[in-house]
Amino acid sequence: MAKVVTVMNMKGGVGKTTVTMHLAGVLGRWHAYGSKPTKVLAIDYDPQFNLSQALLPAKDYFALEKQNKTVLSVLVEDESDLDPFKIQVPGNLKPPSVGSLSTPIFNGSKKGGGLDLIASTLDLMYVALGEANLNVKPIEERFTKFIEEARSLYDIILIDCHPAGSIFTQTSLRHSDHVVIPVVPQRYSVRGIGLMMEFIGAKSVGKQPATPHILFNNVPRIGVSSEEATIRADKKFAAHCMTNTLKKFKAFTEPEAGKNFVWSSGKAYSTEALNNLVRVSRELFTRIGG
Asked: 161: domain range?
């Protein structure tokens, strides 16, 4: 059964999509961390659909959107007449199958593994805007059933989640075993982490809260900033801080339309960036019990 990991921070500009795409890619491409290849499903659960744009060529993405092969189809039945202030409540509580919506990004080794994607769409915003006017339980039930099927098909599910409090964060956290909190060490980071910890607990009613993992992102390649040192020294956060950090490499910002990832790039420092990414992914794999 797959471990479900949401990548989320209520604060914007921390690189959550960058973190999601790189962890999903490296975990699905290599299997040196476990006894078998790792099959990964990445779910783009953000109306901005940045993860989808990074992993898919534009032509392929728009073809999927035209066929309604996006995460929106998990939540609602009919996408033909969306109203931002009065979205329909689905009558059918059974979502489409995972296989009917997932798109292969790449295969892993000859022994298996690989990465699939559930793309997102800007139309997902209609759900976020309209949710105050509807009973969201049918939507939650559809998402629950979809994740339950996905757990049986994959080893790890990574969800790139909408940063604001919404039905997306609610459904994602309720079905997550772990939460990766990307943090760029800067002013007010401590407060942001504290709010995330409270939010995780509040959205885990009736179940064990997801385990948080604080991942420092876009940090200097040499040395430790005072902000990072302060967070690591805080007793509330210390145990949740990952030892490895994602360093500031331009190579991490270049992927677009399925190209220019560090594992296939020949540009300067791409090898160093890949080694950094592998160390982070290996630690996360161990932390989540992969």
From this structure: 3-287
